[in-house]
Amino acid sequence: MIFDFWANVVSGLAATLTTAAFLPQALHIIRCKDTKAISLTMYLIFAAGVACWLTFGVMIWNWPMMIANLITLSLALAIIAMKLRYG
């Protein structure tokens, strides 16, 4: 029981930190619409990986993992869309 609590705390902290680390880059790209310096291939692979983590979060019913990966996937897909639109 105590393990489940700490597993949720650690996964919640990890999910928050990794999403927060991605946020400044995503917001910069969204504001500036300058995507020349980013790799479309990297973002496609990254989005696929985040989608897998989101799926895993759903499979184990871990809310912090689901929410963080949903947010990160949304940001990654927005960046992919802007990369395709603005080059």
Question: Which key terms come to mind for this protein?
Answer:
87 residues; mainly alpha; Monooxygenase; 0% strand
- How many DSSP E strands? 0
The biggest sheet, with number of strands, parallel, antiparallel or mixed sense and barrel status, is: none
| End-to-end separation | 50 Å
Q: SSE order, as H and E? A: HHH
The number of helical elements comes to 3
Kindly report the average pLDDT value: 90
β-strand amount: under 5%
Percent of residues in helices comes to over 70%
Rg over alpha carbons:
15 Å
Instruction: Return the CATH class of one domain.
Output: Mainly Alpha
Poorly predicted runs are: none
What is the CATH topology descriptor of one domain?
Monooxygenase
**Helix/strand/pairing category:** mainly alpha
CATH architecture of one domain, by name, is Up-down Bundle
Summarize this entry quickly.
It is built from three helices and no strands. The protein is mainly alpha-helical.
How does this structure look, described?
This protein is 86% helix and 0% strand. The chain is mainly α and 87 residues long. The protein has a domain at 38-87: Monooxygenase. It starts with a helix and ends with a helix.
Q: What's the topology here?
A:
Elements: H1 2-32, H2 40-59, H3 63-86
Helix pairs in contact: 1-3, 2-3
